[in-house]
Amino acid sequence: RATQYTCMLLSYLIERNAGKKKLVTKLKQLESSMSSGRKMFRLGNMVHALVAARRTTQLPDVVPRFCLTASNLTRALYFICDAVLWLKSVGLQPDVDKMKWRNWATKCYYVSLLLNLARDWYEISWRLEEAVQEEKTKENLLWDTYSQELNGVKCDSLHGVFHLLFQILKKHPPLLLDLMKNLCDLSGPLDTLGIYKTNPGVIGFCGVLSSLVGILTLASPHLKLKQ
Fold it and tell me: Which of 181, 209, 214, 218 is the most buried (most CB within 10 A)?
């Protein structure tokens, strides 16, 4: 995935250079190959998404339970559409309407990301509320420099909200990384569905950043947001 989006970003950055046309062509071919390869590797992910959906139905908190279960189910639908597109690309199902299935796949992926972001916002919101309550119950705030700073900011002001948000994300790296990854992943479906048009450079950059976050959470599991 990181290779695919790196090729997209590099080809966008150098495509205006007349002397680099061959390199741009090779990068786009490699990007296409990586995309096709990823579709094949994802054939088993539908089962993984369904197993994850079954697991998240056991979560005690209703909001994460709904968001993550619905996200995993829509992601499973996305993988089904993706598998159909793969069958089309390798010639096993030549009559498949590529645009229709691609549109369905993108919509499923988009909904899945929105549900993940809803879960992230829920995690942030209750931590915000918790932080506000902690600040209200602290004693001797005037003798604590750090507490003075927070106490001097009205929690109902925009600056106060952003200050607390910064502190929360700083203290919870898994939540920050999950939020960053989901926001970066949104660039692709937003562009494909015509909701917010960008360019391959932006999509490539966001894809590389998202992939690096994914690699980091695989290498360091403690940085992955727990379900």
Answer: 181
Q: Which residue type sits at 212? A: L
pLDDT of 76-114, one tens digit each? 999 999 988 888 887 788 888 889 999 999 999 999 999
If DSSP codes are grouped into helix, strand and coil, which group holds residue 154? coil
Q: Which tens digit of pLDDT belongs to each residue from 105-156?
A: 999 999 999 999 999 999 999 888 887 777 667 644 555 555 555 554 445 5
